């Protein structure tokens, strides 16, 4: 797909969603059909531009559009679907995903296959597209997606318009609806917004006090922030885990304690804007490129903010993983294990192994080259291996093969004369104003 334009109407009191999705794309092979994912919502009308003979059928998971004639590979299409219903999460092997009613509002958490609970789409990570959302709802509610927004009142209702200027995978498309207070902040080179229940204002202001320093640290080490702004939403409900969306991090009230006790989660979700959202994955088997990188960013922030060093955290997690089952290949963990904590921690350890092998300066050059070369695109594990060798000039194929493609946990490399990386303050000039307090290690 090349673009989605959603014009939706939502009534929070009844959880009723209706709208029109206009989808543009290009055929990748000769075909007479277009298949779209859609779960729990009913399509009432389909129009295909320039094709009055097109028809459609709908199953519980798919909408199949049959065209009047075959189209050639490379031909463009535009299809419009009218649909409605009461959206709800879909049940999957990873739990309930997608559109979810809160006590007063809406949360959308789609990774990996929940986007189809609220709009028809090609719900695979490789298919990035531009997204525009126009959503009409009750005026008491704030709506956020991570994209720049405009709001106007029409006949007593709020009409919100969001245009995501960078291509986005469908699982990263989101909408958050609630009665939120708002604080606008400056975060490094970009603008930031924090939305939260008014009763949580004090806890939120304390727990996100270091977000600017965190952003500036990441921009220094990973490269420029890849989107126009960063939005944080703290829901009034408790959530099992925080969530990332494009240009947004979503946290439950239980993740914000007012004491920075879960600061590593804030660091993790912010890091996903570089690793997972801008540099996306073409297939879910490569999810370590998202989660291993974001986990390692937690360790980097711990050190930069005065807590345990990345190296000490790597040693601790390596010791722990050595006691666990050695039955997972993180370059292809399989659907059931792709969110296993070992994918996160061993992925982070893989990066630390590269850092110990090539040295600090070349390691951070690799990260910045990665976020620059594959910005707003998708990449695979082989792409990282090739780029790491190209940028560092060091052969790391065998090293990465052991870490990524074998079940047995390898030992961390040692470096002659220096077993521990230099402090970050000696590796690269970090921004001023980082918190001097030690970050509590709750990994």
Overview of the molecule:
The structure is a single chain. This protein has 443 residues and is an alpha+beta fold. It has 2 domains: 155 residues, Immunoglobulin-like, CATH 2.60.40.1730; 247 residues, Orthogonal Bundle (Neutral Protease, domain 2). The strands form 5 sheets. Strands 4-7-2-1-11-14-13 form a 7-stranded mixed beta sheet, with no helix packed on it. β5 and β6 form a beta hairpin. The longest helix is centred in the last third of the chain and has 18 residues. The C terminus is likely disordered.
Global morphology: globular
User: What number is the mean pLDDT?
Assistant: 94
Give the C-alpha Rg: 22 Å
**Strand order in the largest sheet:** 4-7-2-1-11-14-13
Which structural class matches the secondary elements? alpha+beta
Count of all domains: 2
- Using the 3D structure, state the CATH architecture of the largest domain: Orthogonal Bundle
Terminus-to-terminus distance: 39 Å
Question: In short, what is this structure?
Answer:
This protein has ten helices and 22 strands. It has 443 residues and is α+β, with helices and mostly antiparallel strands.
Summarize the SSE layout with pairings.
Blueprint: E1 3-11, E2 16-26, E3 31-37, E4 42-48, E5 55-58, E6 62-71, E7 76-85, E8 90-92, E9 95-102, E10 105-109, E11 129-137, E12 142-144, E13 149-154, E14 157-168, E15 176-178, E16 181-187, E17 190-196, H1 201-207, H2 211-222, E18 229-234, E19 243-245, E20 248-251, H3 263-271, E21 279-281, H4 288-304, H5 310-321, H6 341-358, H7 360-373, E22 377-379, H8 381-392, H9 397-405, H10 424-427
Parallel strand pairs: 1-11, 17-18, 18-20, 21-22
Antiparallel strand pairs: 1-2, 2-7, 3-6, 4-7, 5-6, 8-9, 9-10, 10-15, 11-14, 12-15, 13-14, 16-17, 19-20
């Amino acid at each position: 797909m090349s673009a989605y334009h959603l014009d939706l109407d939502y009534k929070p009191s009844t959880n009723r969603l209706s709208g029109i999705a206009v989808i543009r794309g290009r055929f990748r092979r000769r075909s007479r059909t277009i298949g779209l994912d859609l779960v729990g919502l009913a399509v009432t009308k389909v129009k295909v531009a320039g094709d009055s003979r097109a028809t459609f059928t709908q199953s519980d998971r798919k909408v199949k559009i049959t065209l009047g004639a075959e189209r050639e590979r490379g031909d463009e299409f535009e299809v419009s679907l009218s649909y409605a219903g009461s959206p709800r999460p879909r049940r999957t092997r990873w739990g309930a995903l997608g559109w979810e009613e809160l006590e007063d509002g809406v949360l959308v958490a789609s990774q990996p296959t929940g986007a189809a609970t609220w709009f028809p789409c090609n719900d695979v990570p490789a298919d990035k597209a531009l997204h525009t959302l126009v959503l009409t709802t009750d005026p008491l509610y704030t709506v956020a997606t991570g994209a720049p927004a405009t709001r106007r009142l029409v006949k007593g209702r709020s009409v919100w318009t969001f245009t995501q200027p960078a291509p986005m995978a469908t699982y990263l498309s989101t909408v958050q609806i609630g009665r939120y207070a708002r604080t606008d902040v400056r975060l490094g080179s970009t603008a930031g917004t924090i939305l939260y229940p008014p009763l949580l204002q004090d806890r939120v202001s304390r727990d996100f006090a270091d977000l600017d320093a965190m952003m500036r640290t990441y921009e220094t080490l990973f490269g420029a922030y890849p989107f126009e702004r960063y939005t944080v939403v703290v829901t009034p409900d408790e959530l099992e885990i925080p969530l990332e969306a494009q240009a947004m991090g979503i946290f439950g009230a239980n993740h914000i304690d007012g004491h920075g006790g879960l600061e590593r989660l804030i660091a993790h979700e912010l890091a996903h804007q570089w690793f997972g959202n801008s540099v996306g994955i073409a297939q879910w088997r490569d999810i370590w490129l998202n989660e291993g990188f974001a986990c390692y960013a937690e360790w980097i922030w711990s050190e930069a903010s005065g807590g345990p060093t990345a190296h000490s955290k790597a040693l601790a997690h390596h010791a722990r993983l050595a006691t666990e089952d050695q039955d997972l290949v993180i370059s292809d963990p399989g659907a059931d294990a792709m969110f296993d904590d070992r994918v996160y921690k061993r992925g982070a350890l893989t990066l630390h192994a590269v850092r110990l092998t090539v040295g600090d300066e070349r390691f951070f050059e690799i990260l910045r080259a990665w976020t620059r070369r594959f910005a707003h695109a998708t990449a695979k594990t082989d792409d990282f291996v090739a780029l790491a060798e190209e940028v560092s000039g060091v052969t790391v194929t065998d090293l990465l093969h052991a870490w990524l493609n074998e079940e047995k946990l390898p030992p961390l490399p040692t470096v002659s004369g220096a077993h521990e990386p230099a402090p970050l303050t000696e590796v690269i000039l970090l921004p001023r104003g980082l918190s001097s307090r030690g970050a509590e290690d709750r990994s």
